User: Fold these one by one.
Assistant:
Number 1:
Amino acid sequence: MICPFCRHDDSRVVDSRQVEDGTQIRRRRECPQCGSRFSTQETALLNIIKRSGATEPFSREKVVAGVRKACQGRPVNDDDLALLAQRVEESLRLTGQAEIEAQEVGMAILAPLRELDEVAYLRYASVYRNFNSLEDFEGEIALLRAVPSSSTDSSVTKNAISTAQKN
Ligand SMILES: [Zn+2]
């Protein structure tokens, strides 16, 4: 890496340590030309593209804040929510993309939230997917009954949707 002080085209790593549970690495570097020291940070990119077009780093806290309301009065504790946010982050990182649309984050929340608590899931889905009639709830509940939560991969869900629509 180029020295930010004298623009020398190389620098030496003098210290390297993991921070934030190993999701970031900080390196202390030294320029062999001018002797200046500086720090760099390496982190796997995961940015969220908001509806406005602006981007911001993915935040587990925001995922938790987003589902906490739906979990009010339900047997869901902070550890459950932290684990859910972790699973959402993992599934988003699995896509391999550095930038992800905000609505995809909402989609990624649905499956783990359903496994956590079906009532909280219904509440969240009703807001997130704009349920505006009893039929929307009935359709979703029929789906919940038709598809066990252990098999929430998209192909199974799609089959269940087409079955539900035929009936
Ligand atoms: Zn330098």
Note: The chain has six helices and six strands.
Number 2:
Amino acid sequence: MGLSMQDLFQRRIFFVSHVTVENLKIVYQTQQEESFLVAVEDINLSFEKGEFVTIVGPSGCGKSSLLLAIDGLIQPAEGRILVNGKGVTGPGPDRAMVFQEFALLPWRSVLRNVRFGMELQRWKDEDLDERSRKYIRLVGLEGFENYHPHQLSGGMRQRVGIARALAVNPEILLMDEPFGALDANTREEMGEELLKIWNQEKKTALFVTHSIDEAVFLADSVVIMSKGPGRVKEVLKIDLPRPRKTDLRDTERFTEYRRYIRALFRKEDTNPAGEEKNA
Ligand SMILES: Nc1ncnc2c1ncn2[C@@H]1O[C@H](COP(=O)(O)OP(=O)(O)OP(=O)(O)O)[C@@H](O)[C@H]1O
Ligand SMILES: [Mg+2]
């Protein structure tokens, strides 16, 4: 059976990887001079455009370091990171990070916090207030444009962080435990909403979490890391239907994935902190 050019083109688009991590090694200098700590090594990963990837592993295994390297904020000691086949040498407008600690400017309103990312990137030819409002609506914060961070709940602040990251229109959204400070219910709701937004905005998402439950719920693939120094233990494809609603968590297949990942951790006695709560 012959394939048309269009078939080939589509297949190629599908298989070309969006983010590639090759033989990555990250080394930090420690307090004592001439002493080094290998945070991660031999990391090889490849993610497709539009894929939702979650990363789990014990505290200190190098999850944040991996994200920082992909963002271009730290330089690898060895190996390289490619985005659309091009080597990453520093931060760029194609990537945006959402941090756990919200990283909002306390003296700026919600609207002006969302604007801030675009201001940093010196956006010009667009109405930044209008664009900020659009993303504030998207994350469900319409009506709170003029509030300041201290007047918002943790979940609302996190939404502002997500709106700010989305407003700069990155191809890749990097999220480092964005829901870590939220209570279990809010966290589940935020997870569902994040999936809705991700589906609309078609971003590649890399999401670090300590919750195996959250990792399975969100992901197309879960990267499971081990410690000392951090390596990739397994990349597990999550074959669950979308759109995903919270009752998916009660299904046998979901439980099976969760059990499998937990067993991987237990083998090494590297149960990720906080997982008990979510089990
Ligand atoms: N700036 C730094 N200088 C020196 N060592 C660092 C630095 N940042 C991280 N490390 C070390 O690198 C290792 C990996 O840290 P990293 O923050 O990437 O882990 P993590 O998996 O994100 O942990 P957690 O789950 O606790 O957030 C740890 O041993 C940590 O002490
Ligand atoms: Mg971390």
Note: The two ends are 49 Å apart (CA to CA).
